[in-house]
Design brief:
The protein is mainly α. The chain has eleven helices and no strands. Helix 6 crosses helix 8 (126-138).
Length: 195
């Protein structure tokens, strides 16, 4: 798992570590392990942190992020639903909720491989292209997803009552906090298509 592919991890919460709290030291270690590709090690450290400090919602949110990144959306959702409202309404909580939404949507599609094959056989299949974009967003492959969405926006902008445009805007808003330059590039590209 590359650091680039997982740059979103803990994106809105990296400065909220309390160096005095053992649970936050474990969070930091877990983050490093996860960025190195050791999800199991990260989960083990976060489990210790939760046991030491069950009231630290940031630990639970980190665990949700790791679970999402390893494809355990159901477990991530179950944990998210146990968070207090103050955590779910935080910037990090809203980001996790967005990821959970895309994970749920992706789970209702045939999956990346089947959709890719469908598009190879029928490049004009708008539903397959849109569903593939959803799956790619759920996997944090934003650039690849945006390629498909811009094809749809250019060729079939009225698909599902403007769904390509709406999804492009959603991804732009997702990217803005962590990659404002890329978000601006996509916003300009969308504006060019709309004008």
């Amino acid at each position: 798992m590359s650091e680039t592919a997982n740059a979103h991890i803990f994106q809105t919460d990296t400065d909220s570590f309390d160096p005095e709290k053992a649970s936050d030291r474990l969070r930091r270690q877990a983050r490093d392990k996860h960025l190195e590709g050791d999800a199991a090690g990260a989960i083990q450290l976060l489990t210790q942190a939760i046991q030491q400090d069950p009231a630290n919602a940031r630990v639970a949110m980190d665990m949700i992020q790791v679970l999402l990144d390893i494809g355990q959306a159901q477990s991530a959702l179950a944990l998210f639903e146990k968070l207090p409202e103050s955590a779910t309404q935080s910037e990090m909580g809203k980001g996790l909720n967005g990821q959970l939404t895309f994970a749920r949507l992706a789970s209702r599609t045939p999956g990346v491989d089947a959709l890719t094959q469908t598009l190879e056989e029928d490049p004009e299949n708008a539903q397959a292209r849109f569903d593939l974009a959803v799956c790619l967003i759920a996997a944090h492959a934003y650039e690849e997803a945006m390629k498909h969405l811009f094809v749809l926006q250019a060729d079939q902008p009225d698909f599902e009552q403007g769904a390509p445009r709406e999804l492009i805007l959603t991804v732009i808003n997702f990217l803005a906090p962590t990659d404002p330059k890329l978000a601006k590039t996509y916003r300009q590209k969308l504006n060019n298509l709309l004008n």
